[in-house]
Every structure is written in C-alpha cells, then in structure tokens.
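User: Can you fold this complex?
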Amino acid sequence: MDYLFDDFQKELIKQANRIGREKVKPLAAEYDREGTFPKKLIKVFAEAGFYTIYIPEEYGGIGRGILDLVLVTEEISRFCGGISLAVAATALGTFPIIIGGNEEQKKKYLPELAAGESIAAFGLTEPAAGSDAGKIQTRAVKKGDKYILNGTKVFITNGGNARINTIIASTDPERGTRGATAFIVEEGMPGFRYGKMEDKMGIRASSTAELIFEDCEVPVANRIGEEGQGFMVAMKTLDKSRPGVAAQALGIAQGAFDLACEYAKTREQFGQSIIKFQAIQFMLADMATQIEASRAMLYATSRMIDNGIDDVAKESSMCKIMASDTAMQVTTDAVQIFGGYGYMRDYPVEKMMRDAKITQIYEGTNQILRMVIARQLIKDITRHT
Amino acid sequence: MKIAVLVKLVPDSEAQIKLNADKSWIETRDISWVMGPYDEYAIEEALKTAGDKGGEVTVISYGDEQAVDGLRKALAMGVHNAVRVKREGEQDLLGTANALAEALKDNGYDLIFTGFKANDDDCAAIGTMVGTLLDIPVITEVSKLEVGEGNVRAERDIEGGREIIEASMPCVITAQKGLNEPRYASLKGIMMAKKKQIEEVVVTHTESRIEMAGLNYPPERAAGKVVGEGAEAVPELVRLLREEAKVIE
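Assistant: Here's the predicted assembly.
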C-alpha cells in the first residue's frame, strides 16, 4: 500500500530503519536478557534528531507531527519494541509541556528535550488508580511559592532515567478528575526519589519505575496550566500519544512477520520449504492483512491529529486496540511458524511475543479504550437523533 | 582550511542486482541508492577535520541528476557546500577523474577526501587518478589520520603491519574502514539539505578510451558432490581433490 508520504517522511523512514538495523538490532537480545536501559542508543537517537520531531522549531525542534513520530517509533520497534520507548515515552512525557505549558516552561525544558540531553517520563498511574485515573491519591498542597507533593506513581516508563517528569497530582481531592493538576518535577528536587524498578515480562530494555514523593517541593512555576486542568492535559496527552503505542505494536508485528516469512521460506519439511504449505500461507496472509489494516488506521489517525483535528479520542483508541491486538496475534503466529525454535530464547520471536503483550495493557487497557469508543459513539448517536 | 570530498551513490548492499534486457547495464529501476560506505568515512573525516581545524567542507559528485541525491545526503550530514560536475555521455574512469580534477583545480583545496573505492564497480581508482592529475600526493586506504600544519600523517594497514606515511598538503586521502564512525544525518540536517543550493559545474571532457563490451552474471556454482560417509570416504576424497579438482598435490 502506498501511503503517499512526503519526501521528508521517506527519508525519515529510511534513516530510522537504518539506525534500527545498524544500532538497535545487534543489541536487542542482550538488552532484553539483561534488562539494560539503552543510554548508548539515546545518544544515537538524539544525534539523529528523533527527539526534535514533535517539538516546535522555536524551541529547538523541527516542528513536524505525530505521523513522523509514529513512523520512527514503528521502524525502531521492528528491531526492538523496548528500546523504541526511549523515544516514544519521552514524547509522552514531553506532550504535557507542549500542550499545556506556558512560554517560560517551554523555553526552559523543550530545548534540552529536543537535543536529547534529557529524556522525559509521564506519571499518572498509581497503585489504586489505573484505568480509574480519577482516583489518584498523590496530593499537591500549595505553600507559598511551592507545592508540596506526597504520594506514589507506579509503572512509570523511563522512570529512573528521566530528568524531566510530568506528574498528575490532586490539588482538590473532593473534585475528583476536576481537582487534578499537572506538574513538572525534575530529578533531584527535594523529596523526589525512585522506588522499585520493575522486572518485566517484555519491553525489558525500557525502564519502569515507581516515583515516590515525600514532602516533595515543586515550585509553583512548574505547575502546567491552572489548578484543576491536570486531567484535561493528561487526556489530551494520551490522545496524542496513543498512536505511539499503536506504532510500537505495529513495528513489533512487522518485525515478527518479516522473520516468520524469512523462516517459512528457508525451513524445509517433507522435502520442501514450509511456505509452500497452505496452512502456513493462510497464516501469513492473515498476518499481513491485519498489519496493513492497523497501519492504515494508524496513519489516518496520525494525519487527523497533524491536521489539527482535536477530538480524536475515539480514533486514537481504535488504532491502539487494533494495532496491539494485531501485535499479539501476529507475534503468537510467528512463534507458531517457527515451531519449537520459536519458543527458544535463541530465536528472536519469543521476545517479540513478550514485548507485544504490554501494548494491549498500557496507555489505557484495550477494555477501557472500548469504553472511550462507546462513549463517543453514544455522543454521536445522540447528536444525530 | 578548504576541504573537498568526492562522493558517489551506490546500490544498497541489500539490493538484488539484475542486468537489464540487453545486458548493457544493471537494471536500476528497483534499486535504492545509498551513499558509498567508504565515502561516508571520507565525509566524516572531512567534517571532523573542519571541526578541529576550522574550515569549510565542499562535497563534489560527478554525474547526472541522480548525483544530486548523494550531494543532499552529504549536506544532511553537515557539509557546507555541494557541487555537481555535470556528466557528458559515458565516461571511463580516467574521464571521470579528469572531470573531477578539472572541477577541483584552482580552487585551493588543502585536503581532498574520498572513499578508497565505491563498492559497486570496486575500481578503487578515482582518488589516485585525481591526485595524479592534480600532481599532488595521494595516500590510499587510510585508517588513521592526523592533520598538522601543512602536512598530514596517515596510517594504513598492510600485510602483517601498519604503514605510516607523511605528506605535505594539498593531498588526497582515500578512506578505509576504521578511519572513524560516520555520524547519522540528523532530521534537521535532512530538512535543511533540501533547501540548499547545489552548484553545477561544466568542465571540458576528455574522450573516453574504453567501451563497455557487455555484462554477465557470474557462472552458477555447480552442485557439490558427496563422496561417501565417515573415515572410509577420505582416500577417495583425497584422490578427487588431487586428480579432479587439482587443489592439492
């Protein structure tokens, strides 16, 4: 399928693919085994300008959009769905500043993020507030020119490695989601520390940590927007970042599909390569079809966002569900095509299957996203009757 | 310091090379073209040298419209200027070297870098020819370089050791693997490269003295032969290697 990319996007895909092939692929298995955070590769990504994509030109970026970020995330994820998060999750941590930050905050934080000197993380989830994000218990109490934060965030991607953390805390618990406020918390601010570093099933080259706030002092100047706007900032951030998860899932699926095709062509049984068997052909045909459908939906949604369409909660949820379910199905089938070898750690497809699973869970489980879609459907139906 | 880099696009090493219908050239339709890997070492060394010593890097390519793509790739990596030397008809290696030398001379370049070969035709000739035509020193297959005041000190691998060569500038350096680790073009660089002006130069061409008679695929390898199994097959294997394959005496 031809997605009619502009010349720059064609170059960007080539460049991301080359870096994936030359730099990410050789390290993927080792980093997965050891759970190594890809500091070395962040330098390469920074040099290549991957962190400049979504940042406006006046703050050191190139002012491109979600589609370009999606294309880079997809290409890197073909080689490692964990390492790609060093880019995608930094975008997630940066969006709140771009969406809701004031001029001073943008000037202060965006240039170092664009240069890849620092990476970012986004903190919303808490032990008791997962899908039910309105139940956050992290409190922010204003005292003079500071807010005092207390609470714990869990499962924070890039946690422990991000200098800049955008955190959602409650300034008015009685108002629920309307009492939430977003803050920029820098590494080293008094009272801010990392808790447990998680040992995960997949995406093991990405760090996932607890962020702990104990009387953490955050300057009022680091509040994003007004008090009470935190939930809105978070939802807008997630609408924009969800295509990134879909891109990660799509890349993992494509990577597994490529390997499955190659293996099916070279593996011989009963005197011929197994790709000659219809049982294998049908699996590959289904895999390719699901991948292409996910891709078409993802690129279309990304283009909606890039063209300024604000209300994309439904579409971005749809493309995340579609791509992540595809990733799970395609990687499972890739393991199946590899047979016994596919189940072994010496072959790369079992890792892809482990990496794929998280894409159905995070940035909104596929179940909660169905609620988001349904909510929009009901709105649409009511509007039309 | 004025530095020139001579570059050429080559087919991606993963491309499947097929001949065209009349076997006069390769089929170029489905090939994706990339900067020659040795030319990337040359560009990196030029940029590094200009960074350390101050100066400007100009990338030069000989060819048709397609050469512009190669120049833009070099611009994206950070070189300052780009020049396309217009191709006229089919040229042999000397004709190409001559055209490049014409474009280089009288421009006061202190250093001229190029890949030691383009890994398509593997001729490894242009750098040496250009240096000879300009009557300046040439050091080939350089894997380490120090640039001093008016002179260079280069190291190259030779059978069983390393050769150290000093030369005065201006000179030509052809780059070998190991010289450096080429940078990736940044997205900002790619964007700016699209807007940059590419200078076009017309030079007098010499007459080509060789003609491509034809191209052919390498002969297909014959299937192997299984002589037998285990130790008892060894005498027969040795006999065949000696008498049929004639690889041992």
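Residues 27 and 52 of chain B are 42 Å apart (CA to CA). Chain B is about 25% helix and 25% strand.
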